[in-house]
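Summary for the funding panel

The consortium committed to producing paired sequence-structure records for every protein in the target list. Below we show the first two records in order, beginning with the earlier of the two.
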Amino acid sequence: MAQGWVLVALALSFLPDERLCSQPVPVAVASPRRAQTAAATDPRATLAPLVEAVRPTVVRVTTRERVGKVRRFFNGLFGEGPFGVFADIETGLGSGVIIAPEGLVLTNNHVIEGADLLVVTTADGRDYEADVVGGDAETDIALLRLRGAAKDLPYARLGSSRNLRVGDFVVAIGNPFGLEMTVTSGIISAKARALGESAFDSYLQTDAAINPGNSGGPLFDLDGKVVGINTAIVDQADGIGFAVPSDLIRSLLPQLRDTGRVVRGFLGISLRDLSFDELDGFAGAVEQGAFIESVRRKGPAAKAGLRAGDVVVGVDGKAIVDASALTQHVARLPPGRRVSIAYVRDGATHQVEVILGQRPGEE
């Protein structure tokens, strides 16, 4: 991880189906949006109705590892051979949120990575062992399934991070330093923050207090919808936390649920942002976009006729503002998808269709 950034540690430590993302929280909500409206005129307005509604969907995730193997030899009595004795010890603590009534839980990939046993504790104190359905290290998201869970667990609904505005109120719930079900509130401080973790960084920034143990916990909007999964903080900073946006999570869920991993679309090009001088050189033909530095030989972009020096300005009718936007857009699409690329070459705008390949290493 880049110096100065730290993942929220363990405390020591393409379109989803409706069951996952579009069902309401099955707990009566006493008009949390009304509390937001009242806050402007009534200093006694409270977030309590919202918290009471969504807190049953938040869980504690405890990780354990099998350690302490001891070899014993029973010379001649029962035959000679090693017998292993192991001890399961608690190694970390994180948070999560239930997103389906049968017990599907979202958390961070770094929370569960390397664990031999996962125990999920619900808000009402029930413990469940959990299996990893899938995980993605690039975006630090993991999906768990509770063993033997009832089919009517309270669960949260994914909201739209795209519709969030800087300044919107949010609420974080988790288990910082083992302090169960801690509630903090704040605002969205910024959007599309890149921390240098991967090419797919696009975090929500918030000043809602996030600490070790909050990893994997939900960030709610005032409608009680999950708009992010809390994942990172700035080392030695106060009031600067980051969450994976819900729209990105939504795009990954079908693959995590069905195949256990994420496979991303691939153009086979090297990109960078345009400088101000380069924008001036296009004489108004380009105002924003992603500059192609090189094209992989026999890759999808090369087969479609794209060349180094082209500037990609749109994909499937969506404007591309910079290199990061293009990388993230393509990464959310599956290999084999046909996309329409708008690009500028020699001052003229062209259109070409590209069939996405699969990212190297994900075959």
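The next record, for a separate protein in the list, is shown here:
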Amino acid sequence: MAQSADITELLRQAQQCNSSAEAALVESVYGELRLMAARYMRRERKGHTLQTTALLNEAYLKLIRHTEAEWKDRSHFFATAASIMRRILVDHARKHLAGKRGGGADVLPLEENLVFTPDRSEPLVRLDEALHRLQQQDPRATRVIELRFFGGLSVEETAAVMEISGRTVRREWNFARAWLREDLGLGSGDANELE
């Protein structure tokens, strides 16, 4: 894995349309982004998910086109990746539900790789709505959930991205999970939904 400073410099150069920097960036971050996408996709049922590669490719394209971003470092890049992956999944789930209700949803470019069912789409949309409510109350706890649950980051990685202590991450993680369980009406038997 390339050093954080190397990735930061590659990000800056790639944004300036340097094709060799973009190729080096892909080589440096693709494996880690794939692991991040795979961590989230493991939570989905077999045969009913967006394929990991499709999620990864769509997220990478959005990241590399994110020209207004001033990348601080490697952690900032991966935190943004987690956020983008969440948006892709939630947007698709919303479109799936709109189509199910007879709405004229636009087709995503990844549609051939998407196989969602109502039992997976609806909970994802509900979780996103709950996260918006939590955001109003505690933005930091919401960010911890986003990075850990959607991004698959460890406590230490989340602490580095957010520039807070691991202890604070754990406290915010526990609070946010409890808050979401209550907001979503999940019982203790549903606890692993937010693991």
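Regarding this second record: The chain has one domain: 4-194. Confidence is low (pLDDT under 50) at residues 102-118.
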